[in-house]
Specification:
With 155 residues, the protein is α+β, with helices and mostly antiparallel strands. The protein has helices at 53-64, 81-107, 112-125, 135-150, and strands spanning 6-11, 20-25, 29-33, 38-39, 45-46, 70-73, 77-80. Helix 1 (53-64) packs antiparallel against helix 2 and helix 3 (112-125) crosses helix 4 (135-150).
Length: 155
């Protein structure tokens, strides 16, 4: 790489235990892949928590505090400026809302499988769930995420 270009690795666990992002300078871009969630257009954001709820919240906060101009997401492309800041804020809020919703439904006696099935319908209606060969793996990830949150003490 050019002497003036630096690439720094940052741990952004939560999506998976070993998730990470790359900060490219002087461009001030973060290449996040799937570690910080997905952007499905204005107002449609979300995350998959496959290892630790609190780690993912901390990872979102860590990137939010960086002096950057854009984030490149795995399946969504790049977002910049005010839209990037809104994305980070909305993703954190959505993650907290999702976890609270799961906890509330469990406390009302709903079974995890029933919760998974209803969320899959919601995600399908929003067109944010894959079809074809990735559908079963997506369902398994969601099932694991609900189980993880169900077993996490949310404050």
């Amino acid at each position: 790489l050019d002497e003036e270009i630096t690439v720094s690795l940052y741990e952004t666990s939560g999506h998976t235990e070993d998730s990470s992002c790359y900060l490219i300078k002087p461009d001030k871009l973060v290449y996040a892949g799937d570690s910080l969630g997905y952007y499905g257009g204005r107002g449609v954001v979300g995350c998959m928590v496959n290892s630790n709820y609190y780690d993912l919240l901390a990872s979102i906060d860590r990137v939010s505090a960086m002096d950057i101009i854009g984030i490149v997401l795995g399946h969504s492309g790049a977002i910049t400026g005010e839209l990037m800041l809104k994305y980070l804020s909305d993703t954190r809020i959505e993650l907290e809302r999702f976890a609270s919703n799961i906890k509330d439904r469990i406390s009302q006696g709903q079974l995890q499988e029933a919760i998974t099935a209803s969320i899959l319908v919601e995600m399908s209606d929003l067109k944010i769930t894959p079809d074809g060969p990735f559908k079963s793996s997506h369902e398994a990830l969601l099932r694991d995420m609900i189980k993880l949150i169900a077993n996490t003490e949310i404050s």
